[in-house]
Design brief:
The structure is a single chain. With 409 residues, the chain is α+β, with helices and mostly antiparallel strands. It folds into three domains: 2-133, DNA Polymerase III, Chain A, domain 2, CATH 3.10.150; 138-247, DNA Polymerase III, Chain A, domain 2 (Roll); 253-397, DNA Polymerase III, Chain A, domain 2. It has helices at residues 11-19, 71-79, 82-86, 125-136, 144-156, 199-211, 242-247, 263-275, 277-282, 326-330, 381-403, and strands at 2-6, 29-34, 38-45, 48-55, 65-70, 91-98, 103-109, 115-119, 121-122, 140-143, 162-166, 171-176, 179-183, 195-197, 216-221, 225-229, 233-238, 254-262, 284-289, 294-299, 304-308, 311-316, 320-325, 342-349, 355-359, 370-376. Strands 9-5-2-3-4-17-16-15-10 form a nine-stranded antiparallel sheet, sandwiched between helices.
C-alpha cells in the first residue's frame, strides 16, 4: 500500500476539478499520471478539462504510469474530505495493487468513516491527448499582472459571446448581440497577447490570475480550444463558437429610433400579453412609434391589448410600426438591468436592411446588451389606429363620467 498525500495548497484546485464532474460526461474518468518528479491529475467536463500538478515526494515509492479511475467515485471520495479541506490538513489516500483483480486500487475513507475504493482502468485517451497537448503545443507567456488587466477590460465589455485582444495592432473588440464591437483601450495600455475567449474562459482565466502566486501565465489557443497554465494548474475551454465569429463581419447597426421607456409598464404589459391565451398563441406583438408617442399592442380577431407607454424621450424621423415575436421578447432579461425606473430601447438597422429592437443598460448605453428581430408591419397600421381611436374614446368617456361622480352626495 502506497499513500499519496494531497497538500492543502492544491485542495481548492482539486475541488474545482471534481466540481466539473457530472453524470453522463462523455469521458467519465479522473486520470493520474505519475512521472519522475510530479503527480498530474486530469479531469472535469470533457470540453473544459483541468489538470492539477503536485510535486512528487522524495520517498514516494510509486512507479511511473498513467491510469484512470471512475470520475464520480473519485469525486465522491474527495467530497468526503470536507473537514480536512476546511482545516487545511493533508489528505491521504492509498494506492494498492490488488493481485486478485490484477490492478491498482485507489482507496480512502470519508469523514464519516465510510470506505471507498476504485479500480484503475487504462488511461483515458482523451485525457492522454490533452496531457500531450499541454506539454507540446506552442504557447505565449504573459505577466500575470497583464492578464488581470485584460480580464478587467473584458469585464467592462460584458455581456459578450467572444472577447478578443490583438497584440499585432493593439486593439480590442467583442461580439455582443450578433454584432462585433471595437473599443478603445485604457490610455497607455499595450496588449501583449493574441487571445479570443468566451465568458466561461474569461472567468476561468481571471480566477487563475487572481489566485496564482506565479508571476506569469502561459496561454495556448487555436480555433478549437484555449489552455491556461500557471505551472501548477491547467485549465482549458472549448472555443467552438470562435469559428462562426471569425467568419462574421461587423454589421454596423445604426439606430433609426431611440426611446426612453418606463421599465415597469413595458415589462408588466409584456408579461400580461403572455397571460391572454389568444395573444400568446398568435405570438405577435406590435410596437408603434411616432415622434411624440409609443404604443405597445397585440391583437387577434378574438382578443387584443394596447398600452400607450410612458416615455421621457423619443427620437425618430417618421412613424414606424414593427412586429416582434412575443416568445423572443419574453426571453429578454429586463429586471435589474438598471437602477432607474426607465431604460433605453432602440430600433437598429444594418446595411442589409435587417432590423432589431435593442435593449440597453446603465453600463453601456451605446451598444445594446440584447435584442430581438423586428419586421415592418405597415399593413396592420389602419387596424391599429382604429384600436387606438377606440381606446381614446373610451378614455374620454371615463373622464366625462368622473365629472358626474357622487362625491358630494
Amino acid at each position: 500500500m502506497h499513500p499519496i498525500n494531497f497538500q492543502p495548497e492544491i485542495h481548492a484546485q482539486l475541488t474545482e476539478l471534481v466540481s466539473g464532474i457530472k453524470k453522463g460526461n462523455k469521458h467519465p474518468f479522473v486520470t493520474f499520471n505519475i512521472t519522475e518528479d510530479a503527480l498530474y491529475i486530469i479531469g472535469g467536463e470533457t470540453e473544459s478539462l483541468m489538470m492539477v500538478k503536485q510535486t512528487r515526494e522524495q520517498d514516494c515509492p510509486l512507479e511511473k504510469g498513467m491510469f484512470s479511475y471512475s470520475a464520480t467515485a473519485f469525486a465522491n471520495l474527495w467530497h468526503g474530505q470536507q473537514t480536512l479541506i476546511n482545516e487545511k490538513k493533508t489528505i491521504s489516500l492509498q494506492f494498492r495493487h490488488d493481485d486478485q483483480q490484477d490492478g491498482v486500487l485507489l482507496e480512502g475513507r470519508t469523514e464519516m468513516n465510510s470506505f471507498r475504493y476504485a479500480l484503475a482502468q487504462p488511461a483515458c485517451d482523451h485525457h492522454l491527448t490533452f496531457f500531450n497537448k499541454v506539454f507540446t503545443s506552442p504557447n505565449e507567456t504573459i505577466d500575470t499582472k497583464h492578464v488581470r488587466e485584460i480580464c478587467g477590460v473584458a469585464g467592462e465589455c460584458a455581456p459578450f459571446s467572444i472577447f478578443e485582444v490583438s497584440k499585432d495592432n493593439n486593439t480590442v473588440q467583442f461580439e455582443r448581440d450578433n454584432d462585433i464591437i471595437p473599443i478603445e483601450l485604457p490610455e497607455g495600455m499595450k496588449i501583449g497577447v493574441n487571445l479570443a475567449i468566451t465568458p466561461e474562459a474569461k472567468r476561468s482565466l481571471e480566477a487563475l490570475a487572481q489566485n496564482t502566486k506565479n508571476k506569469t501565465i502561459s496561454i495556448y489557443t487555436d480555433d478549437d480550444q484555449v489552455i491556461f497554465s500557471d505551472g501548477q494548474t491547467v485549465k482549458s475551454h472549448d472555443l467552438g463558437s470562435l469559428r462562426a465569429y471569425r467568419e462574421k463581419q461587423r454589421q454596423n447597426f445604426e439606430a433609426i429610433a431611440k426611446m426612453i421607456v418606463n421599465i415597469f409598464e413595458f415589462k408588466s404589459e409584456r408579461d400580461n400579453f403572455q397571460k391572454i391565451e389568444e395573444i400568446k398563441k398568435a405570438n405577435q406583438a406590435l410596437l408603434y412609434i411616432t415622434q411624440d408617442s409609443m404604443y405597445f399592442a397585440s391583437f387577434t380577431p378574438q382578443a387584443g391589448a394596447l398600452m400607450k407607454l410612458t416615455t421621457s424621450s423619443i427620437t425618430t424621423s417618421q412613424e414606424q410600426l414593427y412586429s416582434v415575436n412575443l416568445n423572443a421578447l419574453a426571453k429578454i432579461k429586463i429586471k435589474n438591468i438598471t437602477t432607474a425606473k426607465q431604460f433605453k430601447m432602440t430600433v437598429l438597422r444594418n446595411t442589409q436592411g435587417e432590423l432589431k429592437l435593442g435593449f440597453h443598460n446603465d453600463r453601456d448605453k451605446e451598444y445594446s446588451y440584447d435584442s430581438v428581430p423586428l419586421e415592418h408591419a405597415q399593413s396592420l397600421l389602419p387596424e391599429l389606429k382604429h384600436i387606438i381611436e377606440t381606446s381614446e374614446l373610451d378614455s374620454n368617456a371615463n373622464e366625462q363620467n368622473d365629472l358626474f361622480g357622487y362625491d358630494d352626495v
